[in-house]
Write a structure and sequence with these properties.
Elements: H1 2-8, E1 17-23, E2 31-36, E3 40-44, H2 51-68, H3 73-76, E4 89-91, E5 96-99, H4 112-116, H5 118-129, E6 147-157, E7 160-170, E8 183-187, H6 214-220, H7 236-243, E9 248-252, E10 255-259, H8 262-271, H9 280-289, E11 290-294, H10 305-309, E12 311-312, E13 315-316, H11 317-322, H12 325-333, H13 341-356, H14 373-385, E14 393-397, H15 405-420, E15 424-428, H16 432-435, E16 440-445, E17 454-459, H17 461-466, H18 470-474, E18 490-497, E19 505-511, E20 514-518, H19 525-532, E21 539-542, H20 555-558, H21 562-573, E22 596-599, E23 607-610, H22 633-637, H23 641-649, H24 656-667, H25 684-695, E24 702-706, H26 714-729, E25 733-737, H27 741-746, E26 749-754, E27 763-768, H28 770-776, H29 780-788
Parallel strand pairs: 3-15, 3-16, 5-14, 14-15, 20-25, 20-26, 21-24, 24-25
Antiparallel strand pairs: 1-2, 1-4, 6-7, 8-11, 9-10, 12-13, 16-17, 18-19, 22-23, 26-27
């Protein structure tokens, strides 16, 4: 009977699998895998086992590359270039939508509302129902300026032409004073230059304004100023030209250049960026030279007076955007107006999605650059939940990051909803609660880096438990509560903390112990710790923010490990250290030390090909003749951290300074990284652990970690707990913001915030030992922790 049914089935319905044959991307070793369509497949395995290489680097990359090729050559020029993945065969692919944890663009004009279309619907709502009526939806947009103009136009009618005078006006909602940014900036001139010096005496303290740089040469050679005259002696006209001059073309050193006053230049180059996205030295300059205050005209709402005057049921659009989303959803449901029924339903549905996904504590005016990686991923999910597309492949990168165990259930429901709409859902995940809902599991390993990249198991969750693989063995792991907790050596008092949603919180954080700060997403954990314990004297704060670095940066350059290695090579061979840097004298002359040649194909996607001169080794041939312990510098950079630790620990290559750094990298679970791997290829959790390894050499007494278990396999969490214990036993105080129950159970002291998120949170609902929290079960965290330790 079944054969007959199968035979009568249309051929088009038989493509139920995504097939991958011979995947070799990064560390994958000829992986063959079949993934069922319209099902939820979870990819598991230790960090660095090849999950992302298979899901993002192979399946999603090929799908996106093929879609990009359907666009015109002109459009392809503006798209990221995707190389064909290393695989023998990929078939059955569908359109892939990647929902990753990359932070959302830190554009100061981008907010949660503009990123999710909720603002667009609100603007239409106010343009229809707002009293008094002030204009079209543009009149409520803080990105549209008001424009007025008048002039003569020539109208052709019949045989003749006629000139008419026309006035026009565009009503925008932008506040004219702050231009829709919401904050006014004031620049302290004394922090930009020393006015007792002349231009020739290098007066500037602005990053990039050096005596021999273009910026200073342009000002000195502009012809407006005397380069030998002290700035304080300038006439009013010279001072205006120096600070405020409008852009003007000048011929300088035979080149046409645009000269502009110093203040507009500084505003464009430094203040147009979001502060969070700046490099540390530029952020330090901006903090020193610029004071940010809420715009006095609009009160920080970004909107002009007309837009703020129009109200629906007593609320204007600025107040609506500042309201917590869970309350705004209730307000929208209270509007009873049949003429905009579909609009209200659409807006209400979007706002309800925020609440459902655990982001009801945000407000629509929250700048998108301030969202954490997990929050950004969930905001991107909201865009896709309302989508009418089906038969799409959704690819998620640890969607439970930053979620309390209480919120993980909601996230699981959303993933299942996406699947039930007829989509294929691929999830890279470590949390057992999310692995449990999978229809199909693909487990990669057995180890990380060169020790991984093979398929360990493929099948159901029950089969995984019985499979004996590393993931299967640890799936039901439960950390036990400590029998004996440490006695604090002192306390760090926090008084009257009121950052964001905190309500005058007073709390004493024990020192000399492992303290875990927990609570549901949005309860105020980061606000309490980062807002009240500033990184600085004695405090080392390690987060998951992107590491500043180009594709030339790697773990060896970032941790300072390369310096002692270069010196050891130089000493052993009697030459200078600069020869052993691919960014300095030792660089291959052909590719300038990049290892690859980048060919820009104009409007088409650029291509990177390994350099033929050095064969991707990055160094000139003469440098590779110098050896240390039988290896050249290129071979050393190709080593994994574990291998290098052994190499520099003993024998001819013994280098204590390098060995110390490598030991720290192994301690934080990064033994599988190769020393020369570009930083741009690291995940958020790997970046944080790399920073932690770097900071461990500092003299700080208090370590603040933000969810260090992100991206860690169940088996690696034990190693992290051991590292935290060693830090505390060496006399440090460790404060961890964390949702992972294993870390909570291992703590000496827990501070639980809540009881809810946003304005329902911001209070300390429990402080004490984990055993007391489990016994009381008085909070959401207590209940979930008690279930976890099976108390």
């Amino acid at each position: 009977m079944s054969n007959g049914t199968e035979a009568s089935r249309p051929a088009a319905d038989s493509h139920d699998w995504i097939r991958v044959r011979g995947a070799r991307e990064n560390n994958l070793r000829d992986v063959d895998v079949e993934i069922p369509k319209r099902r939820l497949t979870v990819f598991t395995g230790v960090s660095g086992s090849g999950k992302s290489s298979l899901v993002f680097g192979t399946i999603a990359a090929e799908s996106q590359r093929m879609i990009n090729e359907t666009y015109s050559a002109f459009l392809q020029g503006f798209m990221p270039s995707l190389a064909r993945p290393e695989a023998d065969l990929l078939e059955g692919l569908t359109t892939a939508i990647i929902v990753d944890q990359e932070r959302m663009g830190a554009n100061p004009r981008s907010t949660v509302g503009t990123a999710t279309d909720a603002n667009a619907m609100l603007r239409i709502l106010f343009s229809r129902l707002g009293e008094p009526h002030v204009g079209s939806p543009n009149a409520f947009s803080f990105n549209v300026p008001s424009v007025r103009g008048a002039g003569a136009v020539t109208v052709e009618r019949g045989e003749g032409t006629k000139k008419e005078r026309v006035d026009f006006q565009v009503n925008g909602g932008m506040c004219p004073r702050c231009e829709g940014i919401g904050s006014a900036t004031d620049i302290d001139l004394s922090q930009l230059f020393d006015d007792s010096k002349s231009l020739n005496e290098d007066p500037f303290t602005i990053p990039g304004y050096t005596a021999d740089g273009w910026n200073v040469r342009l000002i000195a050679a502009s012809g407006f100023l005397d380069p030998d005259k002290p700035i304080r002696d300038y006439t009013d006209q010279e001072r205006h030209d120096f600070l405020h001059r409008e852009p003007i073309k000048r011929k300088i050193a035979g080149t046409n250049m645009t000269y502009e006053g110093l203040l507009p230049r500084v505003r464009k180059s430094f203040l147009a960026k979001d502060r969070e996205a700046m490099q540390p030295h530029i952020r330090a300059f901006v903090d020193r030279a610029v004071t940010y205050t809420a715009c006095p005209d609009c009160g920080g709402t970004r909107l002009n007076e007309a837009a703020r005057s129009s109200r629906i049921n007593g609320m204007n659009i600025a107040e609506a955007c500042a309201t917590q989303i869970s309350d705004l959803a209730a307000w929208v449901r209270g509007i009873d107006e049949s003429s905009v029924g579909p609009l209200l339903a659409g807006l209400g549905g979007t706002l309800d999605s925020f609440v459902e996904i655990g982001l009801g504590y945000l407000s629509l005016d929250r700048p998108s650059g301030t969202l954490s990686g997990g929050e950004a991923q969930r905001v991107k999910m909201i865009r896709n939940l309302g989508s009418s597309l089906t038969d799409v492949t959704y690819v998620f990168d640890e969607p439970t990051v930053g979620l309390h165990p209480h919120d993980i259930q909601r996230m699981n429901d959303l993933l299942l909803r996406l699947r039930d709409k007829g989509n294929t859902v691929l999830v890279v995940e470590h949390k057992p609660e999310s692995i449990a809902i999978a229809d199909h599991v693909v487990d990669l390993g057995p180890g990380a880096g060169t020790g991984g990249g093979t398929l360990c198991y493929e099948g159901t969750v029950e089969g995984l438990r019985a499979s004996g693989t590393l993931t299967g063995r640890h799936l039901d792991d439960r950390a036990a509560l400590k029998e004996k907790v440490r006695v604090p050596t002192g306390t760090l008092p926090i008084r009257g903390a009121d950052t964001h949603n905190l309500r005058n919180v007073d709390v004493d954080v024990p020192l000399g112990a492992l303290v875990v700060v927990t609570g549901v997403a949005g309860s105020g954990k980061s606000s309490l710790i980062h807002g009240s314990i500033p990184a600085g004297e004695g405090v080392v704060s390690v987060d998951q923010g992107a590491i500043r670095g180009s594709r030339r940066s790697n773990p060896a350059t970032y941790t300072g490990l390369l310096d002692p290695i270069r010196k050891a090579f130089a000493k052993a061979n009697g030459v200078k250290p600069a020869l052993f840097s691919a960014n300095s004298e030792g660089a291959c002359p052909e590719c300038k030390g990049a290892g690859v040649i980048y060919t820009d194909l104009g409007m088409m996607a650029g291509v990177a090909t390994p350099c033929e001169e050095c064969e991707g080794r990055r160094f000139q041939a003469a440098v590779l003749d110098y050896h240390l312990g039988g290896r050249n510098i290129s071979e050393v950079l190709a080593m994994s951290v574990t291998e290098a630790e052994e190499f520099f620990g003993a024998g001819d290559a013994r280098t204590p300074a390098a060995h110390t750094v490598l030991r720290r990298l192994v301690d934080v679970g990064l033994g599988y990284l190769s020393l020369g791997q570009p930083l741009t290829t690291l995940s958020g959790g790997e970046r944080q652990r790399l920073k932690l390894a770097t900071h461990m050499g500092e003299k700080g007494g208090v370590y603040v970690l933000d969810e260090p278990t992100t991206g860690l396999h169940l088996a690696d969490v034990e190693q992290l707990l051991g590292l935290l214990d060693r830090l505390v036993d060496s006399g440090k105080s460790v404060i961890v913001i964390e949702h992972h129950q294993a870390v909570m159970a291992h703590a000496d002291w827990i501070i639980d915030l809540g009881p809810g998120a946003g304005h329902d949170g911001g209070r300390v609902v429990f402080e004490g030992t984990p055993a007391d929290l489990v016994a009381a079960r008085s909070t959401l965290t207590g209940e979930h922790l008690a279930d976890y330790v099976r108390a």
